[in-house]
Write a structure and sequence with these properties.
Helices cover 75% and strands 5% of the residues. The chain is mainly alpha-helical. The protein has two domains: 84 residues, no CATH class; 145 residues, Helix Hairpins (Orthogonal Bundle), CATH 1.10.287. The chain has a four-stranded mixed beta sheet. A hairpin with a 2-residue loop joins β1 and β2. α1 runs antiparallel to α3 and α2 packs antiparallel against α3. It starts with a helix and ends in a 6-residue tail after the last strand. InterPro entries: CT398_CC_hairpin, Oxidative_Scav/Glycosyltrans, Zf-RING_7. Pfam families: CT398_CC, Zn_ribbon_9.
């Protein structure tokens, strides 16, 4: 392939710009905020699940408390009725009177036991409410952290995109100085060699694979015409001759 030496030198400018674009893209993919956002989202998900669990627990306790209070009311009402019968003198039989008094005592014990259950349930509800407040506070903190991290990420994206846009504009200007066939070869080699298609020959060394060319290879390059497109025999990248090539 033939191309003016000036066009070949422009390949180095193009390569530098493409490498800058690759670095910007890599920076965008590996922003530290991305890992922090993922961690914050995972924490927020856990707190959200814990918040729902705490709400569900309180709802279950409320039903349990309501049932226990209803049981207390039923026992208390039964004891009140028996006490009224006892106080009214309606029961005249000694046996019935003894049974009624025994039942009242039994109901009072039952009421006391049920009231203890109600108190225990109320204590558990207070504990569940404390856990709910703690989880809600943690969730709000995580939401705030996630918002801040997202803002930092978006600001970094904006900065990177701005640099990339300027670099792409500069690249477009450089590309106009390079013949189509050379550009096609360059693009093909970029795909094959991790983005590096053109490199300088610096003091007899290929800056792509960093191998020193031997005397035979260097003599062949010296003998080549200025418009001959040289390829490194080792890595097959385009090898651009410069004043520092050592030829």
């Amino acid at each position: 392939m033939k191309a003016a030496s000036e066009a070949q030198l422009r390949l180095l400018d193009l390569q530098e710009l493409d490498t800058a674009l690759d670095r910007l893209e890599h920076r965008k993919r590996t922003l530290p905020e991305l890992a922090e956002i993922q961690h914050a989202e995972e924490r927020l998900g856990k707190f959200s699940d814990a918040f729902v669990a705490a709400q569900t627990e309180i709802s279950d306790i409320d039903r349990e408390q309501k049932k226990a209070e209803q049981d207390v009311d039923q026992v208390r009402a039964r004891a009140d009725r028996d006490q009224k019968r006892l106080d009214s003198g309606q029961v005249s039989s000694a046996r019935d009177l003894e049974n009624l008094q025994s039942e009242i005592v039994s109901l009072q014990r039952r009421q006391s036991d049920l009231e203890e259950i109600v108190l225990e349930v109320m204590e558990r509800r207070e504990e569940a409410e404390t856990r709910l407040r703690d989880v809600e506070s943690d969730r709000e903190t995580s939401e705030k952290t996630l918002t801040e991290l997202s803002a930092r990420r978006d600001a970094a994206y904006s900065e990177i995109d701005g640099e990339a846009e300027l670099t792409r504009t500069a690249r477009a200007g450089v590309a106009t100085d390079i013949p189509d066939d050379l550009m096609k070869l360059y693009d093909k080699l970029r795909d094959q060699h991790r983005g590096v298609a053109a490199t300088a020959l610096l003091r007899g060394q290929c800056q792509g694979c960093h191998l020193q060319l031997n005397t035979v290879e260097l003599n062949a390059i010296r003998a080549a015409a200025a418009d001959e497109v040289i390829r490194c025999e080792e890595c097959r990248r385009i090898l651009v001759r410069t004043k520092e090539s050592g030829l």
